[in-house]
Amino acid sequence: xxxxxxxxxxxxxxxxxxxxxxxxxxxxxxxxxxxxxxxxxxxxxxxxxxxxxxxxxxxxxxxxxxxxxxxxxxxxxxxxxxxxxxxxxxxxxxxxxxxxxxxxxxxxxxxxxxxxxxxxxxxxxxxxxxxxxxxxxxxxxxxxxxxxxxxxxxxxxxxxxxxxxxxxxxxxxxxxxxxxxxxxxxxxxxxxxxxxxxxxxxxxxxxxxxxxxxxxxxxxxxxxxxxxxxxxxxxxxxxxxxxxxxxxxxxxxxxxxxxxxxxxxxxxxxxxxxxxxxxxxxxxxxxxxxxxxxxxxxxxxxxxxxxxxxxxxxxxxxxxxxxxxxxxxxxxxxxxxxxxxxxxxxxxxxxxxxxxxxxxxxxxxxxxxxxxxxxxxxxxxxxxxxxxxxxxxx
Length: 394
Prior knowledge:
Elements (H helix, E strand, L loop, with lengths): L3 H24 L4 E3 L12 E3 H50 L7 H4 L8 H21 L20 H8 L1 H4 L7 H4 L2 E9 L4 E8 L9 E9 L14 E6 L13 E9 L6 E9 L20 H21 L3 H6 L1 H23 L39
Antiparallel strand pairs: 1-2, 3-4, 4-5, 5-6, 7-8
Family: Belongs to the nucleosome assembly protein (NAP) family.
GO cellular component, one term: nucleus
Pfam families: NAP
């Protein structure tokens, strides 16, 4: 058996020989091109031979050609959406009539259940019964003799769109208490796809109310689906580049986006005091129809950038999710799907963070819920490019 004390020095000598061998190898490596850090390359390929770098350039050129095909694909997909949009109209119109109580569905039309899943039907029935009970409590009145009058019949689906606004987080954050009486008058939201320019327009249909005279409020979004020659690898699909709102004709004293504040003002020389009125902006959902005005090729400040980014996400979410699946956001079923998608994205992001802790400062996308990063309509996430997020007020 060998002596352990004699074996130790031999191991040390072997380690030293290995280290020397590595240094000699590195010093004699031929045709090495050192790449600058921060290119997203692994540590093992920070230094690569020049001939390999040449091949990488060829691969990047191929990637640009692939991106051009992606651009064509998304453009044609938008044309398909425009083509198929009229086919949905009859169904959206019937939904509107049922919600407003203008059409009562037949027993056959109400005979619906998902096979093997009675829980959905139970949830819907529970919601309907709850709304019916609330309506009876509001409408029922007691006579002097103590007998209760028959409650008024519920018409349509009360507060359909207001309930959706309350259920969806990004919309409920925008809605203030003073907005609620107005949103109760919201009859419908429609989407119109456009080709020249590429984009879409939202129509908010209101019943007559004491707040403004408009019957319809509009919001228009313009998109582009072009590969930037200077930055082709940033292409992720069509992106919103402009938006415009509309003028709301508020009735006198009913503009919920501003408030008039009366303050005392003292004259510097005479010392007399007078009351002056000052108008201040108040947060409101209806600011959505008055987005920040940005001129072409003018850099925007960070606050405006944040507002525009949020605006684009809301507009896209309404177009892509809420309008096509409104009843599921009313019942809350679609919210569960959104929550599941967000959970999956968070798990993926956590996995990425676990592998590369240095990427903590890289902003993450919002997935399909925000219209980005999933092959649908999205926006570039480079905040230094103001032109990508400009918004014009008509």
